[in-house]
Structure formats: structure tokens, C-alpha cells
Amino acid sequence: MGHRQGGTAIGAASTAELVIPASPASQKVLSAAQVASIGAYLARQMEGPVRVQLFVDGPGCEACEVTGRVLQQVQQASRKVSVNVTLAAGSRRQGQDLDRLPEARVFTRNGNHVRFLGTQVGVEVTSLVQTIADASLERAPLPPDALKRAAALPEGSWLRVFVGAACTHCPGAVRSAVALALANRSLSVDVVQTADFPDLGRSFKISAVPTTVVNGRAFFQEGRSPVEVLEALYANPPKAGEGHMRS
Known about the structure:
alpha/beta; disordered N terminus; Glutaredoxin; 38% helix; single chain
């Protein structure tokens, strides 16, 4: 899958500092240098504690094991990060739809959460760490007028960002979507590791990463600013009765 060139979103300098290169197949966890870099970044950026919930399958789910190890190391990098791991089977019995694992949920300060579907490795760890830092913010990093418009988005609005483990432009696209989720607790934001769920990619005709799907119809095949994504949400409102698509 090819990568499109795209502009960075909020905090371009911070994004560049934190980019984590894709690991070779034999290396499934972060190096000590990467953990130290993450710890320094979180120390600078986080304003408060953040909780991450990881849903996994039982033994035999390699993607779940890898993502669990990565999140454990992120937790070790900062005392402000807490990670809980839950078997999906129990949550399914309680009515939750957890058919794409691993699923990591980063809970924001305003009561929303951002879902990361698939293995968190390579550059995608950058998006995860930046989202954890941004989730701690008391206020969404948006201009006042955009903040007001984001808070007033139609009910049922949703974004789905398709990413790849070696895509250095993907963290900017994810961060733009997350900025809007920080401003509106009802906005659904999913980040999908495309290689793990090719069926989802095919359903939206994804040909490059990053691609941001807006309410299921409009999408960008490169990174866009939060304001540009916000305007696309208003130009393509969710269909009546459709709600967001989490599965």
C-alpha cells in the first residue's frame, strides 16, 4: 500500500521528535532508547493522568501480546499512564462489540475515548503515544472558533483513520482527528491498522495511508489540519438514524 505525502497537524516539531521507525520482524518491543524518548516526551506534554484500556483475546493472539508489551513499556515510561488489560470474552458477554482485536482505548479528559484497532508497532506507536499525551489536555488545542464548532457537531459524527506501521505521515492525520475528539465527547474516532484488517480497508476503498474517512463517505488520502477535517464533518453530516460505525 503506497504512502501519500501529507501535511503535519498540530505540533509538527513534537511529531518529528517522536517518530519511531518500524521495527524489524524479529523485534516486537520498544528499545530502551525508544522508551526513554517516550518518557521524556510524555513528561513535557502531559497535563494529567490518562487511562488506557486494552482488550485482547486469549493465548495465541500474537498481535495482542505485542501490543500489550508495547503498552506496558509506555506505562513504565510515565507514572501518569495507567494501562488495564481485559479479556474481550467477558466484555462481549456484557454487550460490547469487540470483534477486531487487539483494541486499545485511550480515554480523554472530557470523557471521550479514541480506539486503536490492530497491532501497535513501528511508527504507529507514535500516534498512540501522542494520543495519550493529548488525552491529558484540559482543553482541545484548537482556535476558539473551531473549538466552538467542534463542540456543536451533529450527533453520530465519526472519523476513521487508516494507518500503516511504516507511514511517517500517519501520526499527523491521527492527531488532527484526536484534536476534534478532545473538543466533542460524542465524536467517535477510530484508528485502524490497515494491514491487520484489510476487509475494512476494502470496504472504504482504501488505496493509501493515511486515509481519513468522514462519516463513511468523504475522506482525505493525506494528512489534513483539524480545521479542515472539521469542515469536512460539517459538509458530510451523518445520515439520519445511521449513527457512528464502530465495527
